[in-house]
From TrEMBL:
SUPFAM superfamilies: FMN-linked oxidoreductases (SSF51395). It comes from the Eukaryota. This is tRNA-dihydrouridine synthase. GO terms for cellular component: mitochondrion. InterPro entries: Aldolase_TIM (IPR013785), DUS-like_FMN-bd (IPR035587), DUS_fam (IPR001269), tRNA_hU_synthase_CS (IPR018517).
Length: 344
C-alpha cells in the first residue's frame, strides 16, 4: 500500500486540468553560549509540555497538504502539534500575496510550528518577526532533497553547510523570542549527524526532528531508527522521530525503540488523519469533519481537497472505485459521490 500511496503522491497535480467551477555569517569562532529564553505563555506552555516528558504526536510539514483545514482536522483527531508546509522565507518577506496565501491560521490550530525554507539568518529573522505572534515555534527545513531546493541552498543542502544552520539559530535566539527547531535527515556518516545535533543543542535549538533516511533514500527505503536513537542518546534536548509512522502501534514501538520525545507522521496522516487515536483507517466521521471544515473555512485548492479525500478513502475503494473517484473533477461531483456512497 505504501508504494501505491507514494506513486499517487509522486504523480503530477495539474491544477489547470481541474474543472474548477466552484547571508550567512561564519560564526565558527564565536563561543556557543548557553541560552535561557523566556517566552510568552502559549509558547512557554508548549515548551513545558515537551520538556515535561509528554509524548508528542506531530503532523509533519507537507507542501500543498498541511494547510489550515487539514491541520484543524488532525488536531481534532489526536495530533498535539501541527506544522505548516515549508514556506519560502524570501518570498514570504517580499510579497504580501505570498503571506496571505501561505499563512492562514486560527485558534483551533495551536500549537502551530511554521516551517521555513531558508538559507540565511536575515531572511529567517525577518520572516520570524512576521509570524512570531501567531504561532508557537518556527522550524528550519534541513531535510528537503528536491533538486531545486538543494540548488537554492535550502533544505538538505544545509546539512552540507551546518554553519549556516548555526548562524540562523543564533540570530533567532538573539533577536526573536520564539522557540526554534530544525528538521534534519540522517547523514550517511552518522558522526556528522551527531555532531550537528550536539552543536545545535549548545546553541539553543529547542528540539530536533530526525527523519531516519538520508537525502539519497527514497520514501520506500526502511527508516533507520537506530540512527535516530543514536541522536537521542547523544543530546539532552527533545528529539522527535520521523519516518513510516502509519499506526499508533508503530508510534509506540518507535517510542520504545528510540526513547524519543515524540513522533512525526506525514504520509500516515494523509491516508488516516485519525491514526494517533488508534484507528486503522480513516473513520467516516473524520471524513465528514474534513468536509465540514473545508466547507466552513475553505483554504484549499479544490485539487488538493480532492487529493486529500483520495488518500483518506484509499482503504475504502477497490481499483475501479479509485479510478471512478479520481476522475471526478468538480466539488459538487465529489460531494455527491461521497453522499451517495458513504450515506451522509
Ligand atoms: C506531500 C509531501 C509534502 C512534503 N513537504 C514537506 C515540507 O514542506 N517540509 C518538510 O520538511 N518535509 C516535507 N515532506 C517530508 C515529510 O515531512 C516527512 O519528512 C517524510 O514524508 C517522511 O515521513 P513519512 O514517512 O511519515 O511520510 C513532505 C512529504 C510529503 C509526502
Amino acid at each position: 500500500m505504501e508504494d501505491q500511496i507514494n506513486s499517487l503522491l509522486n504523480s503530477q497535480i495539474n491544477i489547470e486540468e481541474f474543472n474548477n467551477n466552484n547571508n550567512s555569517n561564519n560564526n565558527n569562532e564565536e563561543e556557543d553560549k548557553p541560552i535561557v529564553k523566556i517566552y510568552d505563555s502559549d509558547k512557554q506552555n508548549l515548551m513545558d509540555r515537551i520538556n515535561s516528558g509528554e509524548f508528542m504526536k506531530i503532523q509533519a510539514p507537507m507542501v500543498r497538504f498541511s494547510r489550515l483545514p487539514f491541520r484543524m482536522l488532525v488536531k481534532k483527531w489526536g495530533c498535539d502539534i501541527t506544522y505548516t508546509p515549508m514556506i519560502m522565507a524570501a518570498e514570504f518577506n517580499r510579497s504580501e500575496a505570498a503571506r496571505d496565501s501561505d499563512f492562514t491560521i486560527n485558534k483551533l490550530d495551536e500549537p502551530l510550528i511554521v516551517q521555513f525554507g531558508v538559507n540565511n539568518a536575515e531572511e529567517l529573522v525577518s520572516a520570524a518577526e512576521k509570524v512570531k505572534d501567531y504561532c508557537q515555534g518556527i522550524d528550519i527545513n534541513c531535510g528537503c532533497p528536491q533538486r531545486w531546493v538543494m540548488k537554492e541552498g535550502f533544505g538538505a543542502n544545509l546539512l552540507l553547510h551546518p554553519e549556516r544552520i548555526y548562524d540562523m539559530v543564533k540570530q533567532i535566539n538573539n533577536r526573536v523570542p520564539i522557540p526554534i527547531s530544525i528538521k534534519i535527515r540522517v547523514q550517511s556518516d552518522l558522526k556528522d549527524t551527531i555532531e550537528l545535533a550536539k552543536r545545535a543543542e549548545r546553541i539553543g535549538v529547542s528540539w530536533i526532528t530526525v527523519h531516519g533516511r538520508t537525502s539519497a533514500m527514497k520514501s520506500s527505503h526502511p527508516v533507520d531508527y537506530d540512527a535516530i536513537k543514536l541522536v537521542k542518546d547523544n543530546v539532552t534536548l527533545p528529539v522527535f522521530a520521523n519516518g513510516d509512522v502509519f499506526t499508533l502501534s508503530q508510534s509506540n514501538e518507535i517510542r520504545e525503540k528510540t526513547g524519543v520525545n515524540g513522533v512525526m507522521s506525514a504520509r500516515g496522516l494523509l491516508t488516516n488523519p485519525a491514526l494517533f487515536q488508534g484507528y486503522d483507517k480513516t473513520p467516516i466521521e473524520c471524513i465528514k469533519d474534513f468536509i465540514n471544515i473545508y466547507s466552513e473555512y475553505g483554504g484549499l485548492h479544490p485539487v488538493i481537497f480532492h487529493r486529500h479525500l483520495m488518500y483518506m478513502l484509499y482503504e475504502y475503494h477497490n481499483k475501479n472505485e479509485k479510478s471512478e473517484f479520481n476522475k471526478l473533477s468538480t466539488i459538487s461531483g465529489i460531494m455527491d459521490y461521497i453522499n451517495d456512497k458513504f450515506l451522509f
